[in-house]
Design brief:
The complex is a heterodimer of chains A (about 850) and B (about 350).
Chain A: H1 5-46, E1 50-55, E2 60-63, H2 65-71, H3 75-78, H4 83-86, E3 88-91, H5 101-108, E4 112-113, E5 118-121, E6 127-130, E7 133-138, E8 144-151, H6 155-177, E9 181-185, E10 191-194, H7 196-201, H8 224-235, E11 240-245, E12 255-264, E13 270-279, H9 281-308, H10 313-327, E14 333-339, E15 346-350, H11 356-362, H12 373-380, E16 384-386, H13 396-402, E17 409-416, E18 422-430, H14 438-473, E19 477-482, E20 487-490, H15 492-498, H16 502-505, H17 521-530, E21 535-543, E22 549-560, E23 566-575, H18 577-639, H19 646-677, E24 683-685, H20 687-697, H21 699-702, E25 708-710, E26 717-719, H22 721-737, E27 747-754, E28 757-764, H23 796-806, E29 810-816, E30 820-828
Parallel strand pairs in A: 25-27
Antiparallel strand pairs in A: 1-2, 1-8, 3-5, 4-7, 5-6, 7-8, 9-10, 9-13, 11-12, 12-13, 14-15, 14-18, 16-17, 17-18, 19-20, 19-23, 21-22, 22-23, 24-26, 27-28, 28-30, 29-30
Chain B: E1 5-6, H1 15-24, H2 33-49, E2 77-78, E3 83-85, E4 91-93, E5 96-97, H3 109-115, E6 125-128, H4 130-133, H5 147-167, E7 173-176, H6 179-186, H7 191-204, H8 209-212, E8 215-219, E9 223-224, E10 227-228, H9 235-242, E11 249-252, H10 260-270, E12 276-282, H11 292-303, E13 311-315, H12 330-353
Parallel strand pairs in B: 1-13, 6-7, 7-8, 8-11, 11-12, 12-13
Antiparallel strand pairs in B: 2-5, 3-4, 9-10
Chain lengths: ~850, ~350
């Protein structure tokens, strides 16, 4: 029970007051509800769309003014009427009644939209295309108490839609015919359409494979940001464009120029996006080539400017290497290796980005070491590509060299001069495996050409400087002049020779050096020069500054410009005054000497003639007393043998032998002397026949004929038969004679073909000749054995040698003491051979 | 067939928490937060162990009580509000509003924030009725703050609280309306009860029919220290008005009623088709732990009067609505809940066969 009656009373009072407040609150809420309902009614009445409200039995309870107009039913007439009566709808195309949406709303409790192409037939038969929906009306408990039908006249919109549809059909036809890739994207950027040409350009066989995909997802990752951004702009109502790389479905690389335009719907808001992509791969490639070409042109220009400024070649090449590295899309390190003058080894390495160890290792490297692609490029004169140093055992040494540098691939191009000489190599290295792109190769080729140009220019400068130094330091006067004879250069030699300083001479006519009586020479010289002819060592006279004349030797050559046009002449003038003087002196001496020679020759000839006559007469005249001495001695021996004592007989025999020997000697001296003077005519001689006759007919030899072996047939020779007989018989005599006592001689005669000549061998097994005697063997009276041991005059071999010489041949021998000798005479072959 | 079964809300708090509160002398001391959270975690764990398909956080943080948790500690209140007398002789006193405007200090959805991470089955949340809090505006008019303004603020705060709970996924939001019977006790004319019903209906009218299917109203004689404040008021005086509330669910104390068939008949006569009634099948003030069979029989008994499609089971009341955490132990509470769950399932199985 309540603790305190007063408190209970109080509580009750509070409850009563609360009840009043609650009642008031409820009244306020109900009022608010009523106001809300009124607002709703007014809203429905004033709404722009037609509104029909039905109860749960599909009977009309309310129409707003628009609904009255469209249906032709007044509210008062329509209330309680079945909805189908007031709201008579048919299908626009089939003309069949369309199911009333209210029935479905009431049964399913869902919002129902009208089917497309719905036509409302008003009470007076007027037809209007309508478009709208029906929704359930629920009470506070959520029970469906009716249906609200909201609709509008869309006849005009339907006409517009038809027009739009036709327009879209037209647009679609246009799009299909477009040579570009045309895409239509929805508001999420998903691909909804692509024309046939687009599918072809992108190598897409089946559009359904890409339909509904987010458009940017079809682009490569690197292109997606710009594509997304452009689509976003187009969806925002702007026209956007971009150029991007995107390969086809089959991976063909393509560049695209894309324009995206929003397609505006109602309310001027984009409803879709049209994207037109043009294949610009070719023009992009052209642009790229152009860009690269411009880049290289700039680089060439810059390099040439650097050269013109006189910067060192290394600095120029270094700038080019750096430029190449900078323009490479991939991380690349480049190096230039210059070849030594003899082209056998690398000299300087220009590799600013590579470590010092690289330069140290490559400078001085022999190219035939074949260590890396640069060696091969220098050796073969062709570019060498190494896509992966680790993939080919050929590059093992190179791979080991590159590993510490973190490099895996590279290529090298030879730097070739305009004269097709390899000047060096240009190498590009990469840290990843892979081959060069066509652009890479083109870049390397262009740069290598530019480098060749730079190197050649530098070499030309050096050569020019060397030439200038040579010209300047020459003792000769080196002068150039134009085709009008005006002096254009003047070296120190010219200053010394002519006495004019360069400043005095340059710009003046060359005729200042020509004595007046020789002025006609200059026009002739200039005329020759204009014709391109060179004048060599033209000796003339020129005048020095001091007026003295000097003898000079002049060589004048045409000078040509780069177009090979003759622009002047270079003259080299040498002072020949001294030489002239010496020549004159020499000439007079020569003349004097010649007269002396002629005089002495005449004397000698006379002396020789006398000597020959003397020796002939001596030989001839001596023989008569000798023959008398021998004859008388013989007569005594034969006619008075009895009167002769044995001693006398011996004396007589000695006289006889001595006379005979002296006669032989005299005869041989006569023969020898005749050999020098006799006129001989060489003709083919049948040596084989001749040799056999000699052996058979010569009495000294006949005794030994069994021991002389002729290797027939002996080859014919070009000779004088009598002289050859003399020589051959002498040789055979010696071969039979010089044998050890008690030994049978053994002789072989044979011939040997020696090119255009025939060597006649006479070989024996005799006593041989000691080496110390070789030199005097063929000399007259060159005996090497005492006559007591081996009979002879000491002239035989001298005659053999002389005969050989007269028959334009040679003579010699080979010998070994105790084993025999081999004499030979080498004569020409007869021509018929 | 499944007969839904749900708890009412409160579970006695664990001793550790109670000791700490006693020691600190302030049930809102920040140092207690971790202990409160541990109590919630343990309660949910044990609740789920009973097999109850729907659980609560045991209202562990509604320490003050289920009635004034939202306003306890407000600066514009005084402790000398109305006293709620109980049959056992003790009273509970409401705070009195001293000046406007009226605002809740705590919305019950904050309890869901703590409980949700631990729960594996649906959580329901109990809130206090606007009618209960309407008694905070005392007899005298508050200067510059009319009773009209107070009622408007009260409705707004209640609506806010219910919407917040629904938004945080409460399986049901249960409005505790134990003052219904008390109203009849105070005012036999029924005017006070009618005004309470009107006030609560004003609040419920702010929700859609769909939302109201997730809202229920609980009524009981008001248990505290195993006693009630209005058990002496006949249900016959209450139920016809109670069912005028535009709400989808009712949670009605029944197990503790002496003549259950009579009450069931009254329910049957007043229950509307779109409404479900959860009848109490375990008594929260009777220390006897109901068996599953007893529960089963009570459910079967209820099913004789109420269509099974509109029937559910519940506890008669919370086990500790006024922070009486010792009269009934946690073990007893969970044992009774388990009996409710099992008994209901047994009854459903039997009813399925018919």
């Amino acid at each position: 029970m309540v603790e305190n009656p007063n408190e209970e009373k109080l509580l009750r009072a509070v409850a009563v007051q609360n009840a009043r407040a609650i009642l008031l609150a409820r009244e306020r809420a109900e009022k608010a509800l009523r106001e809300s309902e009124e607002r709703l009614r007014v809203t429905l009445a004033s709404i722009g769309d037609a509104v029909i409200v039905c109860d749960a039995k599909s009977r009309v309870t309310y129409l707003n003014a628009v609904a009255e107009e469209l249906t032709g039913w007044a509210l008062a007439d329509a209330v309680a009427a079945p909805l189908e009566k007031v709201f008579h709808i048919v299908d626009e195309q089939t003309r069949e009644s369309v199911p009333n949406p209210c029935a479905r709303v009431l049964s399913e409790g869902v919002v129902v939209g009208l089917a497309n192409h719905t036509v409302l037939i008003a009470r007076d038969g007027t037809e209007r295309a309508i478009d709208d929906s029906a929704a359930p009306i629920r009470d506070v408990e959520g029970n469906i108490t009716g249906v609200i039908l909201i609709f509008r006249d869309v006849s005009e919109k339907r006409r517009s839609e038809r027009a739009l549809q036709e327009s879209e059909e037209f647009s679609r036809t246009v799009l299909e015919d477009s040579p570009d890739c045309v895409r239509i994207l929805d508001l999420e950027g998903r691909l909804q359409f692509m024309n046939v040409n687009g599918l072809r350009l992108l190598d897409i066989d089946d559009f359904t494979a890409v339909k509904n995909q987010l458009s940017w997802s079809l682009w490569p990752e690197e292109s997606q940001p710009v594509v997304q951004d452009s689509i976003r702009k187009a969806l925002g109502g702007e026209t956007a464009s971009f150029q991007a790389f995107g390969p086809t479905a089959k991976g063909r690389p393509k560049w695209w120029d894309v324009i995206l335009r929003p397609v505006m719907g109602e309310n001027a808001k984009p409803v879709r996006v049209i994207s037109v992509a043009r294949d610009i791969t070719e023009s992009k490639a052209t642009q790229e080539a152009l860009r690269q070409s411009e880049l290289f042109l700039r680089l060439q220009k810059r390099s040439l400017e650097m050269l013109l400024k006189g910067l060192p070649l290394k600095e120029v090449l270094e700038a080019m290497v750096c430029a190449m590295e900078a323009q490479s899309p991939r991380k690349m390190l480049a190096a230039v290796h210059l070849l030594s003058e003899d082209g056998t080894r690398f000299k300087d390495a220009i590799a600013p980005s590579l470590p010092q160890s690289y330069r140290a290792a490559t400078e001085g490297m022999k190219i035939d070491s074949k260590t890396g692609p640069c060696c091969w490029a220098a050796l073969t004169g062709d570019k060498v590509i190494v896509p992966d140093v680790a993939a080919d055992a050929k590059w093992k040494a190179f791979a080991e060299f590159m590993a510490p540098l973190g490099l895996r691939s590279g290529w090298s191009a030879p730097i070739i001069s305009s004269q097709s000489k390899v000047l060096g190599t240009f190498a590009n290295y990469y840290s990843e495996p892979g081959g060069p792109s066509p652009q890479d190769l083109q870049a390397v080729e262009v740069l290598a050409r530019t480098m060749a140009l730079a190197i050649e220019r530098k070499q030309a400068e050096r050569a020019k400087a060397r030439l200038a130094a040579i010209v300047e330091s020459s003792d000769d006067a080196i002068i150039s002049k134009d085709l009008n004879g005006i002096i254009t250069s003047w070296n120190r030699g010219a200053e010394r020779l002519f006495g004019y300083e360069a400043g005095e001479a340059i710009g003046r006519s060359i005729t200042m050096l020509i004595p007046p009586e020789r002025l006609d020479e200059e026009p002739r010289i200039l005329e020759s020069i204009r014709r391109g002819a060179r004048i060599d060592h033209y000796e003339t006279v020129r005048r020095r500054k001091d007026g003295t004349l000097i003898d000079i030797s002049l060589t004048v050559s045409p000078m040509r410009n780069d177009q090979n046009e003759i622009i002047g002449a270079s003259k080299i003038a040498r002072d020949i005054t001294e030489r002239k003087r010496a020549e004159e002196l020499l000439q007079s001496e020569a003349k004097h000497l010649e007269s002396l020679v002629q005089e002495r020759t005449a004397k000698l000839k006379a002396m020789v003639g006398e000597l020959e006559a003397f020796s002939y007469s001596v030989s001839h005249d001596l023989r008569a007393p000798l023959r008398a001495m021998a004859g008388y001695a013989k007569a005594l021996l034969e006619e008075a043998p009895a009167q002769l004592s044995p001693q006398h007989r011996t004396y007589l025999e000695r006289i006889q032998r001595a006379a005979e020997r002296l006669d032989r000697l005299t005869q041989e001296i006569l023969t020898y002397s005749q050999l020098s003077r006799a006129e001989i005519k060489l003709q083919p001689v049948n040596l084989d026949k001749l040799a056999h006759e000699i052996v058979e007919q010569y009495p000294e030899l006949a005794a030994h004929c069994g021991h002389i072996q002729i290797h027939s047939p002996l080859l014919p020779v070009l000779a004088h038969e009598s002289l050859l007989t003399q020589a051959l018989s002498n040789l055979l005599n010696n071969a039979c004679k010089f044998v050890a006592p008690g030994t049978e001689p053994k002789v072989v005669v044979r011939t040997e073909e020696m090119g255009e000549e025939i060597r006649i061998w006479v070989e024996d097994k005799g006593i041989g000749i000691a080496p110390e005697h070789r030199d005097r063997l063929f000399k007259i009276f060159g005996r090497i054995h005492p006559e007591s041991k081996y009979e002879g005059t000491g002239i035989g071999l001298a005659i053999v040698k002389k005969v050989g010489e007269r028959m334009e041949g040679t003579t010699g021998f080979e010998s070994e003491p105790g084993k025999g000798s081999r004499f030979w005479m080498q004569l020409k072959k007869p021509s018929e051979l | 067939m499944i007969i839904p079964t749900e708890p009412i809300g409160s579970i006695p708090r664990p001793p550790q928490l109670l000791e700490a509160i006693a020691e600190l002398g302030d049930h809102m001391h920040p140092k207690l937060d971790s202990l409160y959270e541990e109590a919630v975690r343990d309660t949910i764990k044990r609740f789920e162990a009973t097999g109850s398909p729907v659980i609560t956080d045991g209202e562990q943080r509604k320490y003050h009580n289920f009635w004034t948790y939202a306003v306890d500690g407000l600066a514009n209140t005084a402790p000398d509000g109305f006293k709620i007398p109980f049959a056992a002789g003790h009273v509970r006193r409401m705070p009195r509003l001293t000046k406007g405007p009226f605002r809740y200090r705590i919305y019950a959805d904050s309890y869901l924030d703590i409980a949700r991470p631990y729960a594996h089955v649906p959580l329901k949340q109990a809130v206090i009725s606007p009618s209960a809090l309407s008694l905070m505006y005392a007899d005298e008019e508050i200067p510059n703050y009319s009773r009209q303004q107070f009622i408007d603020d009260l409705l707004l705060e209640h609506e806010t609280e219910v919407r917040r709970c629904l938004a945080k996924g409460a399986h049901k939001v249960q409005i505790d309306f134990t003052e219904g019977r008390l109203a009849m006790k105070l005012d036999r004319s029924g005017n006070l009860l009618n005004s309470f019903i009107a006030l609560n209906n004003l609040a419920l009218s702010r929700f859609s029919a769909q939302e109201r299917r997730q809202i229920g109203v609980h009524t009981c004689p008001g248990g505290d220290y195993d006693s009630t404040h209005s058990a002496d008021v006949d249900y016959a005086e209450l139920l016809p008005s109670l069912f005028e509330l535009n709400v989808g669910n009712f949670y009605i104390e029944l197990a503790g009623e002496k003549d259950r068939p009579r009450v069931l008949r009254m329910i049957r006569e007043n229950l509307r088709p779109e409404q479900r009634v959860f009848v109490g099948v375990v008594s929260t003030i009777n220390p006897h732990v109901d068996t599953a069979e007893e529960v089963r029989d009570r459910v079967l008994e209820a099913a004789e009067y109420i269509p099974a499609s509109q029937l559910g089971t519940t506890d008669d009341c919370g086990f500790s609505p006024f922070s009486d955490d010792t009269s009934t132990t946690r073990e007893t509470a969970f044992a009774k809940i388990q009996a409710r769950v099992e008994g209901t399932r047994m009854a459903a199985a039997i009813l399925s066969k018919h």
